[in-house]
Amino acid sequence: MPNDEKNPLRRLSLDELRLRTSAKWRTYPPDVLPLWIAEMDVPVAEPVARALVDAVALGDTGYPVGTGYAEALDAFARQRWGWDGVVAERTAIVPDVMLGVVEMLKLVTGPGDAVVVSPPVYPPFFPFVENMGRRVLEAPLGDGHRLAPAALEAAFRRAVAGGRRAAYLLCSPHNPTGTVHTAQELAALAELANHYGVRVVADEIHAPLVPPGTRFVPFLSVPGAGGAFSLMSASKAWHLAGLKAALAVVGPAATDDLARLPYEVSHGPGHLGIIAHTAALREGGEWLDAVLTGLDENRRLLAELLARHLPDVRYTPPEGTYLAWLDCRALGLGDDPAAVFLERGRVALIGGTGFGTGGAGHVRLNLATSPEVITEAVRRMAAALDRG
Question: CA 284 to CA 355: how far, in whole Å?
Fold first, then answer.
């Protein structure tokens, strides 16, 4: 594998990557190519590594304090998205995005209330919502994996029936499809949610992973979103999942809600996690740009490889994220083609059934790896069909 200093996705060999002990590399046997879980095959960005080394050298491993993380996100949001809505007084540190989602949903819904989601969507949405005693209602994505106003309205109407409280859990950019919702789509969502009294909680963890030419729009920036909540983190864009820390950001009309957040929630994230995320947002822009360039190349490469070796697989290169959503229904592999690709091809992908309505017959593939690994993965997937 070439060592391309400019592209972090080409810096590490498979032998080096297999020394890792995280879930991506230890869940399956060594002969399996793991393109499943959302970890990146990159070295840690130098500014982040330096911040962590310096902290350890100082013994700066105590409890977190202050608003440095929020201030770093504020500067990043202004530069990247032209958005000035990350106001430190309207933020709270939370352990990670999904636990932050749970805490925000607790503020605006009660047991038995409904939380609307738009499948196919990130599988943990379902158990996290259900395990807190809320009901999941689906408003499936429409054509082109876009938000579907008619489906949203029908779900919102059901959710608030009988005067119940309700929330909508937005995934933006959308996982697994990579859809980047437009300002118009998000404004329409806000208007609809306000009409029905549905509170919006946005999982925006993939927000930095949108390439030039596509515009990420923070939900809180659109008209009518002042009462909404956003969960953001540097973890996906800078490969920091093992250094947990996230921020809850709320609009001006949700300040009183945030004030009811239990104090103990802020004890979840670690000091080193906050140091790492803050350094990434403040100093990791050049590294991120190199990753975005590499991901864009990988999106195009995957399209070329599929057209050549698996032409019956339908794939639209994602607008954002480092995830590829592959429609494998024409291959005749049943609801879970990932199981076939694993058994016969020794490639680990995530099967689509856990993503809810619209997921059967699909797989999610992680593009945050080298072109060589993607090429080998598609070769193995094609070979798996020959072994059927």
Answer: 31
